[in-house]
Amino acid sequence: MDINLKESKYTWYNKPRNNFITRERLDRVLVNWKWLHIHQNVSLKDAPTISSDHCALILETQPRDQIKREFRFEAFWTEHEECEKVIRRSWQQDDRNRNCWNQFIRKRSRCKRDLIEWSRRKFKRADKEIEKKEEK
Q: Would 111 disulfide with which of 35, 39, 90, 93, CB 3.0-4.6 Å?
C-alpha cells in the first residue's frame, strides 16, 4: 500500500528545457496492512529539493498530541513595510551550524515563528476587522 504524500503530489523535478518542467511522483513509501495497523497515525511529507532533483521524504509515525495548524503566509503582509524587516531579521540571525540543511530548517522555522508573532501583534484579529468592514 502506498502512503499518500501530504503537501505535494510530486517528488521529482527535471531541469527546465524550453521553459518546461516535468514533475513526477517517482519516490514512494510502501507498507503492508499489518504495519499500517500498528502505525495508524502515519503521515508522509516532502522536504524541499536543495542539491538533488528528488525531494526527501519524511515519514512520521508518532501520533501528534495536538493538531498543529499549518503555517500560511498571508499575502496582505507584504503590503506592510515591516514585513520584509521581520523576514530579514529572522533569516539573518547566525545559527553557528555548518550543516546547510539544519541551518535552513532553523532559519525557516524561526522566520515562520517571527512572522506569526509579528502578525498577532500588528493585526490582532484580522478576521474580526474584515467582518466589521464587510458589515459597513
A: 90
Cα within 13 Å of Cα(23), Cβ side: 6
The residue behind cell 507584504 is 78
Highest average pLDDT, of 2-16, 37-51, 83-97, comes from 83-97
- The span from the CA of 58 to the CA of 25, in Å, is 15
Residue 64 burial (CB count, 10 A) = 9
Tell me the CA distances in angstroms from 116 to 82, 98, 123, one per residue in order: 13, 27, 10
Half-sphere exposure of 54 (CA within 13 A, CB side): 7
Q: Could you tell me the CA-to-CA distances from 21 to 5, 16, 108 in Å, in that order? A: 20, 5, 26
CA distance 78 to 83: 6
Q: Per the confidence metrics, is the pTM higher than 0.85?
A: no
- How is residue 66 annotated by DSSP? S
55 burial level (CB within 10 Å; 0-12, 13-18, 19+)? buried
Mean pLDDT of 27-55: 81
